[in-house]
């Protein structure tokens, strides 16, 4: 489980880091340089638009040395679009302008099958470099196949080492796609932006450039100017001039070719600003009915007047509430935990100085009450992000991780039974059958691992990324790799057949009645023969490519149910692929694009934006009920075998067990901050969960005792 934040109060009160001034460097014409920022050019093909963009960048008044694209260099991550990016790079180089880029969601879409295409084109997904005395840090906040952002542990560890090498007075400029610090925990684009901001504290970070705003914006992230721009595809560019004294950001558009100043930033902080420190001003006890967040500025800058500070906090995504400063010079307040659901929550604390500089940090806390309510059975932190859904057998819970390892955890205690090291990260869930665990990594390798020992029995290499879980059916293991469906023998790992899958798939495949069902990135539901791979039928889910659809088919009897990228729900005949009925999206603002599930004669779907649950009659498609969960839902729905109860996890950690018949809540649990893309495993008593933060937890239902 994510570590519960907390520090000893005496340490906070005694923190007295000295204030000091940097010597002002002399302005030298040789140390002045200019660079450009191009937000979301979204190159669609190698055509005239790349030449126009290259000419506009190289023709900026400041004659930039290089340009940074903070995400969205391609429109969909297609090979032709990356060829357009290569053409842009070549055209710029003829003018002496270097091109740097980090991936955004459009670059790592299902069309690109993740980050592979970007890595082939640009080699590095994140990096740093120095120009004159300035240090540039380019971060990859993208999540393969998903719109939200996350900075994985490997990258944060790299950032720690990178920043240690930078001189204290060196100006630092940060570039990433997802915005930081301007949204609530439920809606923030980057789920762990606090993990980034704490690393930037007390460093000479002059600016953060975010590529996701889609419009011209300037805000301050803990006092750091944070800049977002309109799309470079529409002609908007940023020109940044760096001198030893000042960093000037200007905007240039086709309508206003003369640069317009956005902000001027001191390149060297002559005096350190105030430093915010936060704690819990009470014992770290989950059974407390009242909690007391506390914060102070220590050290406080000489120019900041303590009588004109403002302290505020909010719990989860609630409203900001005022804090009161006590005689210890600490801002504090108390709130009641009784109205909060069981589990892990966050408290954001914000202090604003007399100069109007706001700093914000996050405190994590836990709420428990008694054994009659739901409790955490066990929890374990894995070293890196988990996108896969946990799967279990009688002995273990199996979790593939992006650290390249497959973990078998004791189902009763969560302790590691064994760890199998693969050759590359795992994104897809595992499959368990006949005492073997099958897992496919993003380098396309399918592993068969003995469930008892963790020893590899065989592996099959396809050399194309695998983002969907393998499936076992009638003595055959089938998985999707790149733009192929591949079937192998479970005993030997020898290939039985391999067939082309148009566009490939980024979702799990399903086998039913001798047919393999796969949803392609080209918007098709394709049924292939499980014995030979021969295509039986194809059904067009939508007229446009299903870029945003990450839906796995659900099968009941002779019917297949699938969600479209537009939120529509389709019922298709399993035998011939003909439509039985189709329902348009129930809520245009909450498209149910995820995987449907079947229970109690109903088809269940979940909204990707608002997180509503929807139920339809499985035979007719008529709506039956709709319920709000309060969080977007990016994973699937797990229905019990009896079909009367189901579990789902919200994107931001809200777990819900509900009645499939009525949609009414039966019980729930909060996993805390951190994106969730997986489907929980659920046996009716215990809920098994996994998050992008690497938290794997088993949650007991009400009244279920720990073993």
Fold and architecture overview:
The structure is a single chain. Helices cover 8% and strands 38% of the residues. By secondary structure, it is mainly beta. Among the domains are: 29-266, Metallo-dependent phosphatases (Purple Acid Phosphatase, chain A, domain 2), CATH 3.60.21.10; 276-367, Immunoglobulin-like; 374-380 and 589-707, Lipocalin, CATH 2.40.128.630. It has a six-stranded mixed sheet, with helices on one face. It has a six-stranded mixed sheet with strand order 4-5-8-9-11-10, with no helix packed on it. The chain is globular and about 70 Å long. 51% of the residues are buried. The model is unreliable at 1-27 (pLDDT under 50).
Topology:
Layout: H1 9-14, E1 33-37, H2 48-58, E2 66-70, H3 79-93, E3 98-102, H4 116-122, E4 127-131, E5 134-138, E6 142-143, E7 146-149, H5 153-164, E8 172-176, H6 193-200, E9 205-210, E10 217-221, E11 224-228, E12 237-242, E13 246-252, E14 260-266, E15 276-280, E16 290-291, E17 293-297, E18 310-315, E19 321-322, E20 324-325, E21 331-332, E22 335-336, E23 343-352, E24 358-367, E25 375-381, E26 391-392, E27 396-400, E28 405-410, E29 416-421, E30 431-433, E31 436-440, E32 445-450, E33 456-461, E34 471-473, E35 476-481, E36 484-488, E37 495-500, E38 510-512, E39 515-519, E40 524-529, E41 535-540, E42 554-556, E43 559-563, E44 569-573, E45 579-583, E46 597-599, E47 602-606, E48 613-617, E49 623-627, E50 638-639, E51 645-649, E52 654-659, E53 665-670, E54 681-682, E55 686-690, E56 695-700
Parallel strand pairs: 1-2, 2-3, 5-8, 8-9, 9-11
Antiparallel strand pairs: 1-12, 4-5, 6-7, 10-11, 12-13, 13-14, 15-17, 16-22, 17-21, 18-19, 18-23, 20-21, 23-24, 25-56, 26-27, 27-28, 28-29, 30-31, 31-32, 32-33, 34-35, 35-36, 36-37, 38-39, 39-40, 40-41, 42-43, 43-44, 44-45, 46-47, 47-48, 48-49, 50-51, 51-52, 52-53, 54-55, 55-56
């Amino acid at each position: 489980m994510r570590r519960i934040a907390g520090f000893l109060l005496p340490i906070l009160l005694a923190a007295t880091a000295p204030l000091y001034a940097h010597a002002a460097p002399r302005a030298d014409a040789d140390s002045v340089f200019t660079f450009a920022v191009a937000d979301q050019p979204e190159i669609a093909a190698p055509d005239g638009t790349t030449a126009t963009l290259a000419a506009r960048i190289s023709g900026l008044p400041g004659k930039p040395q290089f340009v940074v694209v903070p995400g969205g260099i391609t429109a969909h991550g297609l090979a032709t679009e990356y060829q357009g990016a290569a053409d842009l790079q070549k055209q710029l180089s003829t003018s002496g302008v270097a091109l740097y880029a980090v991936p955004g969601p459009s670059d790592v879409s299902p069309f690109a099958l993740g980050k592979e295409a970007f890595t082939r084109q640009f080699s590095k997904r994140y990096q740093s470099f120095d120009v004159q005395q300035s240090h540039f840090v380019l971060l990859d906040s993208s999540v393969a196949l998903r719109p939200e952002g996350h900075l994985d542990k490997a990258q944060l560890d790299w950032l720690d080492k990178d920043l240690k090498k930078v001189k204290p007075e060196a100006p630092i400029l940060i570039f990433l796609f997802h915005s930081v610090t301007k949204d609530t925990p439920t809606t923030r684009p980057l789920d762990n932006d606090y993990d980034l901001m704490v690393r930037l504290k007390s460093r000479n970070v002059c600016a953060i450039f975010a590529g996701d705003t889609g419009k011209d914006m300037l805000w301050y992230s803990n006092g750091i100017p944070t800049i977002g721009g309109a799309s470079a595809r529409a002609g908007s560019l940023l020109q940044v001039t760096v001198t030893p004294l000042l960093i000037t950001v200007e905007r240039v558009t086709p309508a206003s070719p003369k640069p317009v100043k956005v902000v001027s930033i001191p390149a060297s902080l002559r005096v350190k600003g105030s430093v915010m420190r936060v704690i819990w001003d009470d014992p770290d006890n989950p059974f407390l009915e009242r909690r007391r967040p506390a914060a102070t500025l220590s050290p406080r800058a000489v120019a900041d007047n303590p009588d004109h500070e403002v302290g505020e906090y909010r719990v989860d995504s609630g409203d900001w509430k005022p804090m009161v400063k006590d005689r210890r010079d600490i801002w504090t307040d108390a709130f009641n935990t009784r109205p909060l659901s069981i589990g892990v929550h966050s408290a954001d604390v914000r202090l604003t100085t007399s100069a109007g500089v706001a700093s914000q940090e996050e405190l994590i806390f836990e709420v428990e009450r008694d054994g009659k309510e739901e409790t955490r059975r066990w929890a374990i932190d894995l070293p890196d992000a988990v996108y896969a859904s946990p799967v279990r057998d009688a002995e273990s819970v199996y979790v593939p991780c992006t650290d390249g390892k497959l973990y078998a955890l004791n189902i009763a205690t969560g302790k590691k039974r064994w760890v199998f090291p693969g050759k590359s990260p795992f994104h897809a869930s595992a499959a368990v059958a006949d005492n073997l665990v099958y897992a496919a990594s993003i380098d396309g390798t399918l592993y068969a691992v003995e469930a008892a020992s963790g020893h590899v029995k065989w592996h099959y290499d396809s050399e194309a990324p695998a983002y969907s879980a393998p499936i076992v059916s009638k003595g055959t293991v089938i998985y999707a790799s790149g733009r192929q469906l591949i079937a192998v023998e479970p005993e030997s790992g020898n290939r039985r057949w391999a067939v082309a899958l148009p566009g490939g798939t980024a979702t799990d495949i399903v086998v039913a009645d001798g047919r393999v069902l796969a949803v392609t990135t080209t918007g098709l539901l394709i049924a292939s023969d499980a014995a030979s791979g021969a295509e039986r039928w194809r059904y067009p889910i939508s007229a446009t490519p299903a870029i945003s659809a990450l839906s796995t088919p659900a099968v009941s009897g002779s019917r297949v149910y699938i969600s479209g990228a537009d939120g529509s729900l389709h019922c298709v005949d399993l035998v011939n692929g003909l439509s039985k009925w189709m329902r348009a999206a129930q809520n245009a603002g909450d498209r149910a694009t995820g995987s449907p599930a079947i229970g109690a004669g109903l088809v269940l779907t979940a909204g990707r934006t608002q997180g509503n649950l929807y139920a339809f009659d499985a035979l007719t498609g008529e709506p039956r009920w709709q319920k709000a969960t309060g969080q977007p839902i990016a994973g699937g729905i797990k229905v019990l075998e009896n079909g009367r109860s189901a579990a789902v996890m919200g994107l931001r950690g809200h777990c819900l067990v509900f009645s499939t018949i009525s949609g009414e809540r039966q019980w729930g649990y909060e996993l805390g901050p951190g994106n969730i893309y997986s489907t929980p495993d659920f046996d009716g008593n215990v809920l098994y969960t996994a998050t992008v933060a690497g938290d794997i937890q088993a949650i007991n239902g009400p009244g279920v005792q720990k073993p």
